[in-house]
Design a protein that fits this description.
The complex is a heterodimer. By secondary structure, chain A is an all-alpha fold. Chain A is built from 13 helices and two strands; from the N terminus they run ααααββααααααααα. In chain A, strands 1-2 form a two-stranded antiparallel ribbon. Chain B has 20 helices and 20 strands. Chain B has helices at about 50-55, 80-90, 110-120, 125-140, 145-150, 160-170, 190-205, 215-220, 240-245, 250-260, 325-330, 355-360, 380-390, 395-410, 425-440, 455-475, 485-490, 510-515, 520-525, 530-535; strands at about 5-15, 25-35, 35-40, 65-70, 75, 95, 175-180, 210-215, 225-230, 235-240, 275-285, 295-310, 315, 340-345, 345-350, 365, 445-450, 475-480, 495-500, 500-505. In chain B, the strands form four sheets. Chain B has a six-stranded mixed β-sheet with strand order 6-7-8-3-9-10, with helices on both faces. In chain B, strands 16-17-18-13-19-20 form a six-stranded mixed β-sheet, with helices on both faces. A four-stranded antiparallel β-sheet of chain B has the order 2-1-4-5, covered by helices on one side. The mean pLDDT of chain B is about 85. Classes of the chains: A mainly alpha, B alpha/beta. The interface of A and B includes residues 222, 244 and 318 of A.
Chain lengths: ~325, ~525
């Protein structure tokens, strides 16, 4: 298939980019005041010269610079992201432990915002200038202007504290030991509030963009052609206008998708959601360098992965891409 | 006598309040018989397209049918419900548009866009729709139908896209085909092919055709009957032969006179020193290419040498993609050639570095095709005319005095410098474009399709201006155009380009009356209404 060639090229570039990020990581470690051995020794509380020297030998910090670099890159390539002395566990395990929760939250929010935003945008553009359009645009402006943390707190206050409909924090009911469907249902009910607060802002962005894009594409010549064929308006809107109008929305969605791992720090903190964002926040507060760098590397890898996915989606929607002569 | 397919009776279309006139179309009555091609001719703003849009129920918002009827198949199609109108569109009345490049959905395959017409009117099964689409693609003469049906619009040329549009319009065998300037955006040879296709289809299917155009050459080629419209009213109607040979109304006469005629001026040989010398110029565009496949090469300028004498107008003629615009842009160094020399008054423009180029730029000035897009809408004309000279080192007072003088010369009056571009019409803006070029005292002016976007009567005025200026100021002009008639009117010599190569160059009369190269002969033969132009 014609789509595979460019994707292979992209994967090659992605590998090179990741390598560059790993090397940048390495320099970041070395740019931090004191070397990791001193940091660890400092964290341990009691350290003498001998212990630091031992630690240096243990971590290979007494080796020449290039040997250290090669070793670090080698570690990254073999997925060894180091050990978190704070948490007492390998960084990779910590991240893999938190990743599903974060992806569940951010992907759900992403889905809500994309589907809701596009649907609202299409609905508004079909009623442009009428009351429905004004209402939808007004709602979008409201979501857009509301700070995320405020919306999150209000959501907890209203739906959890006052109405008691939904749990206000956490990933699942602690100590309930649900299994199977009951557990899934429990997690879902915990998911509703954080996912919708996180999704609202981007829903507003997608709505506005879809609406503007639909109106612009609606002016183009081929839409008149479609009408001259005798097609009904809903079909013209879906088949001719929407597909062309989606192109800028996909671009924006690709940018947002890059934030899926690292972009939920605030939401995770407010809702006590055990995801990567909180891991990063905690590690920052605790100066847990290995973990921070691990999260950094994984986030970067995710950005690259979603970029490639965006590229594929773009190629699927727009046949002209990759054919430009 | 056959009954009319369409009968329009005292049709009036209202423009929204605040428009420059009250009616787009005012009390127009005419008929189109079965199997007849009626040409509706007029300049931009004459209301000729509005009638077509009204018939299709596709009037822009704010524009409404005020009075009158359009009887089609026993019903007044202007008064149908939206649903009935939609059922009629694409089925019994079909329409093709001017811009084939934008009239197709870029994200849909050609076959799907044709099959969609059947789906819209609930005809055939999906498999039959596809088979019919394939037949239609074959019928309109597209090459390799099995491949075209799966192609996207961007993979087709302009002429091929227009054929695809026609295939779509013909899908349900309409009784009336409305063609709104369908060949205006096409090259002459492609235009000739599309006109022939429409004639063939009319003969084969016996449908009525309403053909909207501004080009009397096309009228001569295709029309059975003609109506001429001006300011929303019909000023003349009759058979094509009558209107073309014996126009009654002054406006029709003016329009016909304004057409660059086939009478070829006998140009005197030019013996002056050269204003421009191009020596073995080359420019190759490489695109695509990657990893496995070799890059695609387009030789836009392929070893071209030519000379323009001082005071000479050289016409550079060719179809789109021939490289004529690239050559023009290379002379101003908007494009840097790969090899060769461009000598303007002894300076090799091709070899200058950036700083020297800036200093030398004033020697060659361009007049562009689109008079709307080539002036900054937020700058007054004075600024457009003085920015260049001031940058060149002329004092502000001198530059402003010269600007006023130039506005007088191009016939707009000195006071016009204090106005903004939007206050002028297209033809007036093109005059400003010419004044702007002259403000730099260039040794050479490059006019790239400078009159192509203008109506014929305006076109004639701008050509007159250029002719006049050239005689008064001894201008040297490289006049790039796709329109052979225009070239014949103004140019001393004609150079014909095809696929980056200069295939023929010579005295205008020689090239027109005794073309040597096969391609030039083909181009001349394709000019619509060529015979009539020579005799009329």
């Amino acid at each position: 298939m014609a789509i595979l060639g460019p994707i292979l090229g992209r994967l090659l570039k992605a590998a090179i980019t990741l390598l560059a990020i790993a090397i940048l990581n390495f320099f970041l470690i070395h740019a931090a005041p004191g070397d990791p051995a001193a940091v660890i020794a400092g964290e341990a509380g009691a350290a003498d010269e001998q212990m630091i020297a031992d630690l240096r030998a243990q971590f290979g910090l007494d080796q020449p610079f290039y040997v250290q670099l090669a070793r670090y890159v080698g570690n990254v390539v073999t997925l060894d992201l180091g050990y978190s002395f704070r948490q007492g566990a390998p960084v990779l395990d910590l991240i893999l432990d938190r990743l599903p929760a974060t992806l569940l939250l951010t992907l759900t929010a992403f889905g809500i915002s994309l589907v809701g935003g596009i649907a609202m945008g299409v609905a508004a553009s079909a009623r442009v200038g009428k009351i429905g359009d004004s209402l939808l645009t007004g709602f979008a402006l409201l979501f857009y202007a509301t700070p995320l943390y405020w919306a999150a707190l209000m959501a907890v206050l209203v739906f959890s504290v006052n109405l008691g409909w939904l749990p206000g924090f956490g990933y699942e009911t602690v100590g309930a030991n649900y299994t199977g469907l009951t557990r899934m249902w429990d997690i879902l009910s915990h998911l509703v509030l954080p996912a919708s607060t996180l999704g609202l802002f981007f829903m507003a962005v997608y709505m506005r963009m879809t609406r503007a894009s639909m109106l612009e594409v609606g002016q183009q010549d081929f839409v008149k052609t479609a009408r001259a064929k005798g097609l009904a308006d809903p079909i013209i809107r879906r088949r001719h206008i929407l597909r062309n109008a989606l192109l800028p929305v996909v671009t924006l969605a690709g940018l947002q998708a890059g934030q899926l791992v690292g972009g939920a720090v605030l939401t995770e903190t407010v809702f006590a959601w055990p995801g990567i964002g909180r891991l990063m926040f905690e590690s920052l507060a605790a100066r847990d360098y290995n973990t921070i760098l691990g999260v950094f590397l994984v986030s970067a890898a995710m950005v690259i992965v979603f970029n490639i996915i965006t590229d594929i989606v773009y190629r699927l929607i727009d046949p002209r891409i990759g054919h430009k002569a | 006598m056959t009954s009319p397919t369409l009968s329009i009776e005292r049709l009036t279309i209202d423009l929204p309040a605040g428009a420059d006139r009250q009616f787009a179309v005012h009390k127009c009555s005419y008929q189109i018989l079965k199997g007849e091609i009626l040409c509706v001719v007029g300049e931009s703003g004459s209301g000729k397209s509005m009638t077509a849009n009204a018939l299709m129920g596709l009037l822009p918002s704010g524009v409404k049918v005020g009075a009158g009827r359009a009887m089609f198949g026993g019903k007044d199609i202007l008064r149908l419900s939206e649903g009935d109108q939609r059922a009629m569109r694409g089925d019994r009345v079909a329409m093709i548009f001017q811009e084939p490049m934008t009239a197709l959905n870029p994200l849909m395959r050609i076959g799907d866009q044709i099959a969609e017409v059947f789906a819209a009117h609930k005809r055939h099964s999906p498999a039959q729709r596809r088979a019919r689409a394939l037949e239609l693609i074959t019928e309109v003469g597209l090459p390799d139908p099995a491949k075209i049906i799966r192609a996207y619009p961007f993979q087709l040329s302009g002429g091929q896209r227009q054929r695809a549009m026609i295939a779509m319009a013909l899908a349900l065998e309409p009784e009336l085909l409305i063609a709104d300037e369908p060949t205006t955006a096409l090259d002459v040879t492609t235009q000739a092919q599309i006109l022939k296709l429409i004639l063939d289809l009319r003969d084969r299917r016996g449908m009525a055709v309403m053909f909207i155009t501004h080009d009397f050459g096309v009228v001569e080629e295709i029309a059975d009957r003609v109506i001429v419209m001006r300011h929303g009213q019909i000023v003349e109607a009759g058979t094509a032969a009558d209107v073309l040979q014996d126009p009654q109304h002054d406006y029709t006469k003016a329009l016909l006179n304004a057409i660059p005629s086939g009478h070829v001026p006998q140009s005197a040989p030019v013996t002056n020193a050269p204003a421009l010398q191009i020596k073995s110029l080359n420019k190759v565009y490489r695109t695509g290419g990657g990893f496995m496949k070799p890059p695609r090469e387009v030789r836009a300028i392929d070893d071209i040498s030519l000379t323009i004498a001082k005071g000479e107008v050289l016409g550079l003629v060719g179809e789109s993609g021939s490289g004529k615009s690239t050559l023009g842009r290379a002379v101003v160094r908007l494009v840097t050639p790969d090899s060769g020399q461009i000598l303007v008054g002894g300076t090799d423009m091709a070899a200058l570095n950036d700083a020297d180029l800036r200093a030398a730029r004033h020697k060659v000035q361009m007049v562009f095709q689109d008079p709307y897009a080539s002036l900054n809408p937020r700058h007054k004309i004075m600024r457009a005319l003085t920015d260049g000279p001031i940058a060149k080192g002329v004092s502000k007072a001198d530059a402003q005095a010269r600007a006023r003088e130039l506005m007088e010369i191009v016939g707009l009056g000195a006071e016009a410098v204090d106005r903004f571009p939007h206050e002028f019409s297209g033809g007036q803006r093109q005059r400003i474009g010419i004044a702007r070029a002259l403000a730099m005292d260039p040794e050479l002016i490059i006019a790239d399709e400078a009159v192509s976007a203008l109506d014929v009567s305006i076109q004639a005025q701008v050509l007159n201006l250029l002719r006049d200026l050239r005689a008064r100021m001894n201008l040297s002009i490289l006049f790039i155009t796709h329109d052979l008639r225009v070239a014949a009117q103004l140019c001393d010599r004609i150079a014909v380009m095809q696929k980056g190569k200069l295939v023929e160059i010579g005295q205008t009369s020689e090239v027109f009356l005794r073309p040597q190269h096969g391609y030039t002969q083909k181009l001349l033969a394709a000019v619509p209404g060529g015979d009539w132009g020579k005799t009329g």
